[in-house]
Structure formats: C-alpha cells, structure tokens
C-alpha cells in the first residue's frame, strides 16, 4: 500500500473539455462521514475515448475541486468539490481495468488533481502496477508543486508518464498546442520528471 510507504495522506483540496459523457455511476456514492480519504476521491466524472487529453485514446478521471480558479476556466462546474461525489478509488480502478484494453492510457485532470495528493497518488500507484500510461494535468507549475514538499505530490510526479502543467491563461489560447488550453502550459515527459531536481525553485 502506498500509504504504508509514504505515511498517511492529508486532505487539502485542470481544465478540460466540457460535456463529454461517459459514466455516471451512482453506485460510486459513499457516505462522506465514513470515508477513508486515502481510499476515496472527490470525483466530478469519468469519461472514455477522449483523444484530446493526452496521447492516443484515453480514459479520463476528472476530479472535483480546484483552488486555483484561473479566470476564464472552461470547467467552472468542477471548482467545487460538492459538485462531484466522494467515491472509492477501488471503483475507479475497477472501471479502468474493465475498459483499458480499448484505450492507450488514463488521464487525471479536473478540477485540480494536486488538491487531492493522497488519493491521486493512490490511483497512480495502482495504475502503475497495471502498466497503464498516465497523464496528469495541473494548474500549478511543477516548480510550485515541488515547493510544497509533499511526499504524495513527489510520488505522483515521479511515477507518471506526462505532466501538463501551468494555469489556464485566456489571452494565450491561440495556437496553444497539442493537449493544452493555453500557450504557457508545458508537456513534461517522464525523462524530465526523472530529473526532477531541475524543476526546484
Ligand atoms: S486549474 Fe485553472 S483551468 Fe484547471 S480547473 Fe482549475 S481553474 Fe480551471
């Protein structure tokens, strides 16, 4: 268990295309007061067959809650956790296991995934064991993430294949580039994450 390796997570609290449905799985609902936060996550929705959220065809985990609040964000409905549902991570992983054969990987976006570092680290840990290609979006820059000194954040950054970082900036949307919402956002591949110290402030 990741929790055993890194210690308990704490609960602190990117933007992508609206209205691409997929799975509304009400069976995911659990009682918030009974939740073990390292084993559950605030989820807005999952959707399948996305070809704009990372390389190839992807299953997308869109988390609920974003503390960044970029002006002009395309997905303001994801900003509040309560617009989503607190769901067991095991349910999400089961959904991925059942459908990954039709996809090239999984993307985690939001909302802001790094507002829930413990639960996202647990998902990354379980997807790595399955050999799944993982892309994560963040409205933070990688330098800002590293500055937090959080073990779960460090685990995520060093165990994913692609990070797309930086806030959405409305004035920079033209020719933003593949998978990105604005020109300032960067694609940071695993080889660079392996040299993570170069991103420290
Ligand atoms: S990080 Fe910015 S673009 Fe992403 S969900 Fe939050 S406000 Fe929207």
Describe the structure.
24% of the residues lie in helices and 19% in strands. The protein has 201 residues and is an alpha/beta fold. The protein has a single domain (12-199), classed as Aldolase class I (TIM Barrel). A 7-stranded mixed β-sheet has the order 3-1-2-4-5-6-7. Strand 4 (105-109), helix 3 (117-129) and strand 5 (134-137) form a beta-alpha-beta unit. Helix 3 packs parallel to helix 5. It is globular and about 40 Å long. Iron/sulfur cluster is lined by residues 14-15, 66, 68-70, 73, 75, 78, 110-112, 139, 167-168.
Strand order of the largest sheet: 3-1-2-4-5-6-7
Low-confidence stretches: 4-30
**Would you count the extended β strands for me?**
7
- Bound heterogens, unique: iron/sulfur cluster
Gyration radius, rounded: 15 Å
Q: Please indicate the percent range of residues in DSSP E strands (runs of 2 or more).
A: 15-25%
Sheet having the most strands: 7 strands, mixed
Run of helices and strands: HEEEHEHEHHEEH
Helix percent reads: 10-25%
Based on helices, strands and strand pairing, what is the structural class?
alpha/beta
**What is the CATH H-level superfamily?**
Aldolase class I
- Given the structure, what is the number of helices? 6
The number of domains: 1
Name of the top-level CATH class = Alpha Beta
- Give the integer mean of the pLDDT values: 84
Spatial separation of the terminal alpha carbons: 31 Å
CATH architecture classification: Alpha-Beta Barrel
Morphology: globular
CATH topology: TIM Barrel
